[in-house]
Structure formats: C-alpha cells, structure tokens
Amino acid sequence: MNVIGNLTFKKISRVSPSQFHSMKNCAYKSLLAEAFEKKPLLPVSPNAYLGTVLHKMLELISRGEIKNETEFNSKFDNEILLMENDLKEKGYDFFVPLQMNVRDYGMKKIQLKKHLRSATASPREQTGINFISEKWLESKDKLVGGRMDLIIEEADETEIIDFKTGAITEDVFDDNGETYLEVKNEYQEQLKLYAYLYFDCNGKFPTQLSLVDLAKQKFDVEFTEEECKAVFEEAKSLLTETNKSIDTATFKANPSEDNCKFCLYRPACKFYLQFLTTENYFNDVCGLVKDVVKYQNGNVSVFVEKGNNKISVTGFATDKFEYFNSNRNKQINLFNLRKEATEFVYSATKTTKIYE
Ligand code: SF4
Question: Which member of 88, 167, 220, 346 lies 3.0 to 4.6 Å from 337 by CB, making a disulfide possible if both were Cys?
C-alpha cells in the first residue's frame, strides 16, 4: 500500500505563468508538488495524458518540424507510443491503449491536423516576420519564468500565442443574470504574465495576446501594461509569502470542492483529509476499517467507519482481502472511487489508490 512519509518542504525558486493560478487558489498545493518533486500521488485522467501529446504536436507543428501529413502521422504515433510506455512504467497500464480510454481521440487528431494545414500555408518564409516557438523567458530577478508556445515578431507588432487543448472560455454571468462566454480568468492572467516577461526581457510589451484551441479558434486577451505589471507583482509576492510559510509553518491551504477535486496531492494534504472527514461529495473516503468480506466471485468489499457514517466500498480484487483484514480498526484513505446511487456506497475503479 502507499504510505506518505515525513514531508520535507522545499522553497519554490520560481513561479511559472501556467502555475500561477493554481498557486493562487491553494499555495499549499504548490508546496506539496515541490516536496514530491512534481511527481503526482494519484493518476490524472487519461484525457490529460492525451492533452500532453496534443500539445507536444502543436509545438512541433509551430516549430516547422512537422510539415506534412506523413510526418504528422508518424510523429503522432511515436508520441503516443512514448506516452503509453511512460504510463506502463508508472504502473498505469489500464490507460493503454490511450485511444480506447479517452474521449474523442479521433476527432482531436483530425482537429490537430488543421493546424498542420495552417502551418504549411503560413508565411513562415516571409521576410520581416520572426516565428519563435517554445521560447523560455524569465524576469530579471528570476522569480517568474515560463516557456511561451509561439511569439510572432514583426517590425511594429509582436503577438504571443499560447496553445490550449481544452476549453478556453467559460460561462460568466452578467449583472442581469444572463450568461456569456469569456476567456477563463486563469488564462488571461497567464498571458498577462507572459506579456510582462516579454517586456522585462525585451524592453517593450507585445501588441497582441492570443489563445488558440485545437479547433484552431483564436481568442484575443485584452490587456494593459499596468494590468500585466500588477499580475507580475502579485505572482512575486505570492511566491515570497508561500516560501515564508515554510519557515513559520503557517501554511495557506484552501480546501474546497473546486480546488481539491483534481488536486493530485490529496493523499498528502492534512487539510484535505480533515475536510474529508465532514464532506461527502468527493470520490474519496477516509475512515477506520471495520469489516471486510470476500464474495464467491472473488470480489472484496471493505466497510469503513467515518464518524457516525458506515461506508461500504465494493469491487476490490481478491488480493486486497488480506490487506484490509489485517488493518481492521486502522485508518485508511481511499482515493478515486466511484460514488454509487445509494448513499455511503462506493466502488473501486481502475485508478483507485489506497494510502495509509
Ligand atoms: S487537496 Fe486541496 S487543500 Fe490540499 S493541497 Fe490540494 S488543493 Fe490544496
């Protein structure tokens, strides 16, 4: 079983624009990520692994390293294979083949190819236009730094483009309660940070900030120089405060459904585990092992006491019987369960992890 040993927190040397929003929502999560050397304690969704491959392909297309469909297909297959081998090494064989485990695999591949056509048609050879992909930029004080997907520099104009493989916009309510679509705030802040980094390195701000999705839709991010500077200062002071919290051991955690649902460091988070003792809307369960049953078909169910609630978790494999049986009256934490229709009944999934 998995055990979280003593935690050794480390100072975070730099905040990246892509990490800033998450750090703002829960600084403790960033400290846990650093303590575990950014190795998640739980598997992420298979869609996220495909997203990593799609983003890599977008980078290669924007760098001009994939020019036609033959190169695209060969590179795509290769990147998928590399990712699947990595998943197997991590013990996540159940996500392989990715094609069978993610939504809209074929559709996403087709959408990605549209970028290929646009890249081959783009005026890369035009004089006076500089396409810079995967450019690392950091502030002079080195406290904020990140890699920009694509910078397009012309005589009087500079555009910074960030590629996203998921949704870029979200529903927002106006004063009358009507909804409208807006670029997610976290992406707006990310791009403003990139703009400030560009300024810090080049002495001038970009003229346009854009996000491009898989379907090749482009979304502009409006900005002012003051806004970019404000986000930059906010990021630096957040970094300083977060690092200070290690010395004072006054950690700023912010447990909530939105923050914790997808946090991959939940097993090591004492604030979340405390939160979980009273909240039931997560797909995780903590409590004392009270009983375990092995059925004729080999399936194992464990019965856990959480406060005054008795929780049953079904669907474990036979080999878990001995473990649960020898851990009666001990505290266990079960992550990534499926909540069944009946209250306090859960079932194990292929991504379920047990931590002591
Ligand atoms: S589990 Fe929640 S409170 Fe804990 S680090 Fe993650 S986001 Fe923060």
Answer: 346
Whether the CB of 254 sits within 6 Å of ligand 1: yes
**184 torsion bin: left (phi>0), alpha (psi -120 to 50), beta (else):** beta
Strands (E) in the chain, as ranges, are: 130-138, 145-153, 158-163, 169-173, 179-183, 208-212, 218-220, 285-294, 300-306, 309-316, 331-339, 345-355
* Each residue's pLDDT tens digit, 152-206: 999 899 999 999 999 999 988 877 778 888 999 999 999 999 999 999 999 999 9
User: Between the CA of residue 249 and those of 24, 31, 275, 325, what are the distances in Å?
Assistant: 18, 12, 19, 37
- Round to whole Å and give the CA distance between 69 and 119: 12
Q: What is the pTM of this model?
A: 0.89
Give 22: exposed, middle or buried? Use CB within 10 Å, 0-12, 13-18, 19+.
middle
Longest dimension (CA), the chain: 75
| d(CA 276, ligand 1 centre) in Å | 11
- Residue range 77-87, pLDDT digits in tens: 999 999 999 99
Q: Output the residue whose Cα is nearest ligand 1's atom 2.
A: 260
> What angle (nearest 5°) sits at the alpha carbon of residue 214, between those of residues 213 and 218?
30
Pocket probe for ligand 1: among 7, 31, 257, 263, the residue whose CB has the most ligand atoms within 8 Å is 263
Q: What is the pLDDT of residues 10-66, one digit of tens each?
A: 999 999 999 999 999 999 999 999 999 999 999 888 999 999 999 999 989 888 889
Structural domains of the chain in order of their starting residue, each with its CATH number:
130-237 (3.90.320.10), 281-355 (2.40.50.140)
Q: Counting atoms of ligand 1 from 1, which one is nearest the CA of 26?
A: 8
- CA 213 to chain CA centroid, Å, is 17
Whose tokens are 């930059």? That residue is 232
- Per-residue pLDDT at 179: 86
As given in the structure block, the two tokens for residue 284 are 């995780």
Q: Which two tokens stand for residue 153?
A: 């520099």
Residue matched to tokens 């983003």: 55
